[in-house]
TrEMBL record:
Native organism: Speluncibacter jeojiensis
Cofactor annotation: FAD
Domain annotation FAD-binding FR-type: ranges: 23-129
Assigned keywords, A-Z: 2Fe-2S, FAD, Flavoprotein, Iron, Iron-sulfur, Metal-binding, Oxidoreductase
Domain of life: Bacteria
Record-annotated 2Fe-2S ferredoxin-type domain positions: 277-366
CDD domains to which the protein is assigned, alphabetical: fer2 (cd00207), PA_degradation_oxidoreductase_like (cd06214)
Protein's UniProt keywords contain Oxidoreductase: yes
Protein name: Ferredoxin--NADP reductase
GO molecular function: 2 iron, 2 sulfur cluster binding; flavin adenine dinucleotide binding; metal ion binding; oxidoreductase activity
Length: 366
């Protein structure tokens, strides 16, 4: 982290060395803190009218929050939005304590109504392209958070079937238990909720997951939870049930080691530098064309031009900035998240992409 002044938390908010915070960082106030279970809390934020456009979001996206640290000044942590833009009026993330999880424990211990929190705009690509699909939603523990947003959105905006397979340690650890019962009662012909309790059935295995999911292998699948659960589920769906990898979506969060809240410095090319490439970028339905200096990362270029390009970690460890190359070639300086199938589809990380060809065409709207 670049912060050197240690912040303190008060009822008014998290006091930080604001000189190191970039203009892309926003501050929202907590209006409510809801105890979901003994280990999970939902944080409800107020969005002022002037930031309403910047905080428009899609079901399945997340917020990156700035949390104080005595050791580094602050740390960045990503938490999924459990609210749906189609059914909920408030912006809400849900946080569950994890063993040795600094951010989750800090928020569960210290977050209070009235506190202000630094954050980045909503981002993430764990988002359905079409809410009218039939969905197979697979969650374990706090992995229910983005899945809940997708579930509520699909029931509100679509007409397809929604199946939720939800694994937890025991009945008391089921986040959103009452809300799920209510939604199942309101949509008996469309929503099926299948609970798996470790205290009763043991840990879910690849074989047991495959058995539960088999009747729904034609659905669009979204998976979120602890690493072993997601690996077993992805293997069961793709390898055992033969589901196309394009229809199996996995949400993966890597630890953020850098400081995505620091100001982004864009250095203009100097005389004598290699001639820039030309990039055409489609973002939110609009095309933009710029000169692209050869050693400049795509995200830095777009932010310097005033575009709200999505991002979170800025270090190649998440997929929030993912975009698709439609023409030309780029090189990625770091890639800790994209798989071979993604690369074959032309998916790259905007925060790590530099041009290899003179002309590049990229879309964030794919």
């Amino acid at each position: 982290m670049n912060d050197t002044i240690e912040p303190t938390a008060t009822a008014e908010g998290i006091q930080t060395n604001v000189g190191l915070v970039g203009s892309h960082v926003h501050q929202l106030k907590l209006s409510r803190v809801i105890d979901e279970t003994a280990e999970a809390r939902s944080l409800v934020f107020e969005v002022p009218e002037e930031l309403s456009e910047k905080f428009r979001y899609s079901p399945g996206q997340f917020l990156t929050l700035r949390i104080p640290s005595d050791l580094t000044g602050s740390v960045a942590r990503c938490y999924s939005l459990s609210s749906s833009p189609h059914t909920d009026t408030a912006l809400t993330v849900t946080v569950k304590r994890t063993v040795d999880g600094y951010g989750s424990n800090w928020l569960c211990d210290n977050a209070t109504a009235g506190m202000s929190v630094d954050m980045l705009q909503p981002s993430g690509v764990f988002v359905p392209k079409n809410l009218g699909e039939n969905f197979l939603l697979m969650a374990a523990g706090s992995g229910i958070t983005p899945v809940m947003a997708i579930l509520k959105s699909a029931l509100s905006q679509g007409s397809g079937k929604v199946v939720l397979i939800y694994a937890n340690r025991d009945e008391k650890s089921v986040i959103f238990a009452e809300e799920l019962r209510r939604l199942a009662a309101e949509h008996p012909d469309r929503l099926t909720v299948i609970h798996w309790l470790e205290s009763v059935q043991g840990l879910p295995s690849r074989a047991s997951i495959g058995t539960l999911a088999a009747p729904f292998r034609e659905h669009e699948a979204f998976i979120c939870g602890p690493g072993p659960f997601m690996s077993a589920t992805q293997d069961a769906l793709q390898h055992d049930l033969g589901m196309d990898h394009h229809r199996v979506h996995v949400e993966v969060f890597q630890s953020i080691e850098g400081d995505p809240f620091a100001e982004i410095v864009f250095e203009e090319p100097e005389a004598g530098d290699e001639l820039p490439a030309t990039v055409t970028v489609t973002l939110d339905g609009t095309e933009h064309t710029f000169d692209w200096p050869r050693g400049t990362k795509l995200l830095d270029l777009l932010l310097s031009k005033g575009l709200d390009a999505p991002f979170s970690c800025r270090q190649g460890a998440c997929s929030a900035c993912a975009c698709q190359v439609e023409e030309g070639k780029v090189d990625m300086l770091v890639n800790d998240i994209l798989e071979d199938e993604d690369l074959a589809d032309g998916i790259v990380l905007g925060c790590q992409a530099v041009p290899l060809t003179d002309i590049v065409k990229v879309t964030y709207d794919g």
